[in-house]
Each structure stands twice: as C-alpha cells, then as structure tokens.
C-alpha cells in the first residue's frame, strides 16, 4: 500500500479532538488534552493540526521498527505509548481514512486493560463514570463505563471546529514529544511488517458500473411505454 503522501490528520479523528474539547469546555476538570500518533517523520503534520484544534501537546511515536505494522501491531504500539501518559480517557475517530480500519480502538483497549466502546455519538462524564450513547444497527444503546476507558466516536457526535489562524500559527510552538520504541518499552518482535500477522498484498479498483438509462418525460404516453418496456425487459413486471 502506498502511504508516501502527505500525512494529514485523519478527518475522523477531528471528531475525537472536538469531543475532548467539549468535555473540557463543559466544566469537567481536564488536566490536558494530548494528541498521540504513530508514523514517519512527516506524520508530525497531523499533530500540528491536532494541537491547532485545541490539544495542549502531542506525542509522536516514530521508529523504523514500527513501519508496516498491521492493526494488531499498531494497537499494541499505541497502547505502549499511551501507558506512559496514564490517560483517564482515550478518544479515537471511528475509523482510519486510509486502511478504513474500525478496530484500532478495541486493540488499544485490550492492551490497556480498559473498557472500549465504538460508534459513540454522545458522551457525558459523571464523576468516574462515562455515560455514552452509541449508534447500533437498529437504534441507540446507552452504556455506562468506568474510567479509564477507550472510546471510538462516530462522526455524528459533533461538528469539528475550524482552527483559527492564531492557533495554526502557534501549533508548532506547542510541546511535541518525539519517542522511539525503546522510550515506551515496545517489544520490537511484536511490531513492523515482518512481525505482523496480516500482510497487504494487492489492491484493485472495483468493477466499472454500466451507465444508467435516462428516460426524458417529453411525452407522457411515450414515457410510460418506455418505462414499461424497460421494466418488462428486466422481468420486473
């Protein structure tokens, strides 16, 4: 998979940052909001965007040893990085925008030994408990979880704010901690392409769809005949 392009902030993660900001601005005592990512040197661009949206500081795990990690290995590496931060609440977007992976939150939670919820569209902090509303297949679930917890928020939870020009200009001045595998006790035999169970092998574009048929309503009787013929041809009537 070609991931050589610019490393912008995953748009789904902007909802997680906004959720964190709304908790803080809503009166809950929050010491700090920390943005964490794993990736090559160019991934720092995503962290600059994250702090421009309100995060107080950022942590960048970058090390050749983690390159090519699959979801399980990435979740392990991120969890090791998060352990050093000792967070009360970990918020993620519902999915990545490159691999379209929805499971990284659950993997991180497993390694942190914390409860995990996905597709959360509303959350309230009540003391040491988080009351969440999550979107399910046939409705909405209300779930209480104890903190610390790992929550993947759905994109319906909020409308992310736009960073101000002042915030964008000041993003590079906010604290950025760059760490390698050895700094966060990552077992390098568990990360990287060679140590990942899932291997990306190829991709192909979906088959092209045939162009549709447009029937103009110029003459009602003729139009009806065309529609009936079209349906009859496909044995739909």
Characterise this structure.
With 237 residues, the protein is α/β, with parallel strands linked by helices. It contains six helices and eight strands. Helix 3 crosses helix 4. The relative contact order is 0.17.
Topology:
Elements: H1 11-25, E1 34-38, H2 44-52, E2 57-61, H3 71-85, E3 89-93, H4 104-112, E4 116-126, E5 129-136, E6 139-146, E7 149-153, H5 165-170, E8 176-179, H6 220-233
Parallel strand pairs: 1-2, 2-8, 3-7, 4-7
Antiparallel strand pairs: 4-5, 5-6
In short:
The chain is an alpha/beta fold and 237 residues long. 29% of the residues lie in helices and 22% in strands.
What separation lies between the terminal Cα atoms?
46 Å
Query: What's the number of helices?
Result: 6
Helix content: 25-40%
* Helix/strand order: HEHEHEHEEEEHEH
As a whole number of angstroms, the C-alpha radius of gyration is 23 Å
Tally of strands: 8
Structural class: alpha/beta
Residue-averaged pLDDT = 91
Arrangement of strands in the largest sheet: 3-7-4-5-6
Main features:
five-stranded mixed beta sheet, 237 residues, three-stranded parallel beta sheet, globular, 22% strand, alpha/beta, 6 helices
């Amino acid at each position: 998979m070609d991931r050589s392009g610019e490393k912008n902030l995953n748009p789904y993660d902007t909802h997680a940052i906004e959720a964190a900001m709304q908790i803080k601005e809503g009166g809950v005592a929050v010491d700090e909001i920390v943005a964490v990512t794993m990736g090559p040197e160019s991934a720092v661009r995503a962290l600059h965007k994250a702090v421009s949206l309100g995060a107080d500081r950022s942590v960048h795990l970058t090390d050749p040893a983690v390159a090519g990690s699959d979801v399980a290995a990435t979740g392990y590496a991120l969890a090791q990085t998060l352990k050093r931060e000792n967070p009360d609440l970990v918020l993620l977007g519902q999915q990545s925008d490159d691999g379209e992976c929805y499971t990284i939150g659950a993997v991180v939670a497993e390694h942190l030994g914390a409860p995990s919820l996905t597709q959360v569209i509303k959350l309230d902090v009540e003391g040491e408990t988080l009351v969440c509303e999550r979107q399910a297949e046939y409705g909405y679930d209300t779930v209480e979880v104890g903190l610390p917890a790992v929550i993947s928020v759905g994109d319906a939870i909020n409308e992310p704010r736009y960073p101000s020009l002042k915030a964008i200009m000041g993003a590079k001045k906010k604290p950025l901690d760059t760490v390698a595998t050895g700094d966060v006790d990552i077992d390098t035999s568990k990360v990287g392409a060679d140590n990942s169970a899932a291997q990306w092998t190829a991709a192909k574009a979906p088959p092209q769809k045939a162009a549709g048929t447009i029937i103009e309503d110029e003459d009602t009787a003729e139009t009806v005949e065309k529609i009936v013929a079209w349906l009859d041809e496909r044995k739909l009537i």
